[in-house]
Every structure is written in C-alpha cells, then in structure tokens.
Write a structure and sequence with these properties.
With 108 residues, the protein is mainly α. It has one domain (3-107). Helix content is 74%, strand content 0%. It has helices spanning 3-13, 32-49, 54-78, 82-107. Helix 2 (32-49) runs antiparallel to helix 3 (54-78) and helix 2 (32-49) runs parallel beside helix 4 (82-107). Mean pLDDT is 81; it is low at 12-20.
C-alpha cells in the first residue's frame, strides 16, 4: 500500500505543464501573501525531509499541517482568479502528498 502514494506523486510530477513551481498566474500584488505562504510551506517540507531526528520531523510536520490549513483558509478568503486558484490548488495538493509520504515514513 505504501507504493500507491509514491506512484501517484511521481505521476503528478511527471506532468510538465503542472510541475511548474512558479505560480505564474498569481503575479498580481494582491496575491503576494498567497505566494509567500506557498513558499513557506515548501520550505517547511524540505526541512522535514532533511530533519535529523524523528522528533524534529514530527514537530515540523505538525507546523507544516497547520500552515497548509491556514493557506487554504486564506485562499478561500481572498478568492483569487481561476488560473491562480488552480495553480495554488495544484501546489497545495503536491505538498499534501509530500506531507503524507513523510508522515508514513516517519511512522515506520
């Protein structure tokens, strides 16, 4: 069963049009906060993947989860343009998959 999330994640990243990290549709200054949140979420996930201990990983995963929830709430509140919303949703989905993979490897 652990193979399924890894395969889904690989398939998701293999789509070149969707694999862009730049959030190009969200260039409007009104969406600067959303882009910054997404950058913060990505940075937290990288810290999880390079954490030295399981306790540190667990702590950062909890923070990552809270930050993702706040990001989704903020996106609903700001109601960005459809193209920006689509890119943000894809980026959040990618982060949720990475989060799940890290959580699974942390529990083993």
């Amino acid at each position: 069963m652990r193979l399924l999330p890894a395969v889904a994640f690989a398939c998701l990243l293999s789509t070149p049009a969707l694999a862009a990290d730049d959030l190009s549709a969200c260039r409007d200054p009104a969406y600067q906060g959303l882009r910054q949140r997404m950058e913060n979420i990505r940075d937290q996930m990288e810290r999880v993947e390079y954490a030295a201990t399981r306790d540190e990983q667990r702590r950062i995963l909890e923070l990552h989860s809270k930050t993702m929830h706040e990001g989704m709430r903020e996106m609903r509140r700001r109601d960005p343009a459809p193209a920006c919303r689509e890119q943000m949703m894809y980026a959040m989905m990618e982060q949720m998959m990475r989060h799940q993979l890290a959580a699974q490897s942390n529990s083993e």
